[in-house]
Amino acid sequence: MPETQTADRMLSRKDVATMCGVDPITVTRWANAGKLTSLRTAGGHRRYKESEVRNLMAGSPA
Known about the structure:
The chain has 62 residues and is an alpha+beta fold. 52% of the residues lie in helices and 15% in strands. The protein has a three-stranded antiparallel β-sheet with strand order 1-3-2. Strand 2 (38-40) and strand 3 (46-49) form a beta hairpin. The chain starts with a helix and ends with a helix. The model has no long low-confidence stretch (mean pLDDT 89).
């Protein structure tokens, strides 16, 4: 898969928690604190850009 497609993939809260090794509620706290931007699905679930999650893990600013 090309890097541009992978970087723009949308992840669930559980996916982000697994990638970062944290509890899913921590991901929600990060979003509420502005550390991660979340988009809402039609059903009200949050989705996160994989590129933004990787930047957070690397310590880079969003």
